[in-house]
Amino acid sequence: MAVKLNEKYLAGFVSEEEIRKVEKETAEAVQTIKNRNGAGNDFLGWIDLPVNYDKAEFEAIKKAAEKIKKSCDVFVVIGIGGSYLGARAAIEYIKSPLYNALAKDTPDIYFAGNTLSGTALDELLSICDGKDVCVNVISKSGTTTEPAIAFRVMREYLENKYGKDGARERIFATTDKEKGSLKYLADQNGYQCFVVPDDVGGRYSVLTAVGLLPIAVAGCDIDKLMKGAADAREAYNGKTGTDCERYAAIRNCLYRKGKAIEILACYHPFFTMTAEWWKQLYGESEGKDGKGIFPASVIFSTDLHSMGQMIQEGKRNIFETVVDIKSTGAKVAVPGDSENLDGLGFIAGQTLDSVNRKAFQATALAHCDGGVPNIVIEVDGKNEYEFGYLVYFFEMACAISGYTLGVNPFNQPGVESYKKNMYALLGKPGAENEERRKQLLARLGE
Amino acid sequence: MAVKLNEKYLAGFVSEEEIRKVEKETAEAVQTIKNRNGAGNDFLGWIDLPVNYDKAEFEAIKKAAEKIKKSCDVFVVIGIGGSYLGARAAIEYIKSPLYNALAKDTPDIYFAGNTLSGTALDELLSICDGKDVCVNVISKSGTTTEPAIAFRVMREYLENKYGKDGARERIFATTDKEKGSLKYLADQNGYQCFVVPDDVGGRYSVLTAVGLLPIAVAGCDIDKLMKGAADAREAYNGKTGTDCERYAAIRNCLYRKGKAIEILACYHPFFTMTAEWWKQLYGESEGKDGKGIFPASVIFSTDLHSMGQMIQEGKRNIFETVVDIKSTGAKVAVPGDSENLDGLGFIAGQTLDSVNRKAFQATALAHCDGGVPNIVIEVDGKNEYEFGYLVYFFEMACAISGYTLGVNPFNQPGVESYKKNMYALLGKPGAENEERRKQLLARLGE
Description:
Chain A is built from 16 helices and ten strands. Chain A is an alpha/beta fold. Chains A and B meet through α5, α6, α7, α11 and β8 of A and α5, α6, α7, α11 and β8 of B.
């Protein structure tokens, strides 16, 4: 098992009896997922993805990645939400959060189309100057505002730089298999296409072409990634009494006892974007119908010097889930120093990672003493295999947890609200938009 | 006024009468700060810092920054908590979150000593390879574990590379003015020193040498930064009825009405680290005695596609504070496209920033409709002046808010808990450590 639950730091906060009660519900949820008869069951494609993926497309992804590696210095990935978080999380976890700054034989990778901030796109264009560029545009429909705008800008940039024929070889579209405006545009222009499956929601899409192409371009081994997920599927899918179900049970148990906030913590900066991916997965799956655990994240020991005080002694409405990565391969150790002015001589010669794991144990015990329960998820390492395993662990636990909470974990109706208002305020044609625009302007006093 | 409060999106959530009630308390807090007779009043040095700073040191900082710019490609800033968040926030806000990747005539800047993760330091060393390096080590005592370890590593690296004499010219220490192990080491080795004042806590230190040296090295105009803070001091210090006091009153009002989480939102990625700085400022100042608003942050519209669902329809225990930056100088606009397959023709020609501000209005209204009050803080621009102004706004509001909450906003007793356990588990010599070590190992079952 590459991923294991450690309940040592829950003692005194939640009893076995309390968990058992919730486990009756989580066991039902496991069954619901297995029988595919729950709410949102047309979005269960992620369950068998690690084994039932399109093998021909998988090979095409690898080939495209090789082509991209050879033909550019800068690879721009255009997508928002699930269309960028999974890939960015994987690349930072497996390679590095400093991936772009490190010496390597793969292109620099920038994520665009996830913001409407003008400076971000201005700066990206200046970075592209004088370099060879490829683009992967990821959008099921092709009409989501943020990526669509960025793609207009990057397509114009590539066509000005390489001509229409040159640009064609440098644009890769990940989109619907047959319909939608991006698919139409891609076919018309002859861009190579990859598929966003119909039965996999955005936040569950990292193991589809959405995530796999950028991850492969970064030089990660996507076979190992899928193997990790496949082994997790073998361990968790349709089974009760697993660590995965248990995580779902414990967090629901803590929520019912008034813990409204879950802080995902890890002691490595390379986990930062995995925590962001996790926030979408859990926040979007559970935050509805007036319910849901609020997902937050910290990187320790860094944030022990910012959020640490609040966690140790603030309002007791929180619990922590710590991802304890047991091995990273890092080499650096604390140097000796005969003068020992800083008083650290007693740890000279120890690797930083060994000091780091003591910091984790020390903190978990301190936070327990402060009234904050800690769920610990142990992960063996920081390679493709473990990342794939962890992704599936969190996905399955999220589905189980959502059903246990009593929501549909696979929809996101609330995401439309800002979009509708935005289209209206931007003056999108259409009677409904015009009516809404009038109402909104009146409320804004404009 | 470079910073203004906009209460348009609070209508219906909190009445003027309710705010007025809390304003009786915030007005008292303003007086307590002015009279310097509240808890933690030996840490009020930040109040007059924008005008009463050490002018000779300020000039020395500028000179050192010029020297550093000329003598290195990579500038490593070693510090944790307040000793890195302010500088990093300023550089990303004023310059860019992609500062290192952009073409420039100033060094790349990396922040170290804020984590015990081995990979982070391994990677930094590999980035330094073949480049000229300077180091700024920031620690009042010199014995805080994270920066002390990183400094051991970087000092060894510099001395191996440049010899003891060469390293001396490349190491800059920001530390206590006369005592502590780092001050002693620096004096012994002849490193240029800057001062961490006694009466300014870490999270309030961005306008001291702690923040100013790295900010100046990045090419920011620190005179303008101080001018912004000085004008904010003029506007807020000792005065009631200000927007600054009002922000403190409203957030306390919302907290008392059951809003346990404050989400700081901004529509620009360059604000990401300013939000992290804000989290330390508010979390560490208020999170004590079982109280405190839990500080979280998002970047929109990015995170509307991750946390948006939860904010729109989840548990109604949240409010948002949106930093609305009215002008960024960005130029990029939505390109025209005669085919208009993405349907965005109706915004062709508009700048992204104008679309972005509509997204803000659209979202604020949508979230209000979803039951989430929005405090809006309008900021004129993204230059040094506005950043300095905003820093002082948040610092003063935090002090007022902390007293209103009934805590000492200037201490952080809880931060010691993990450190004590960590020293014990790492086997630090001393009877107390040994006793604690035995107890902790028993609890860990080791």
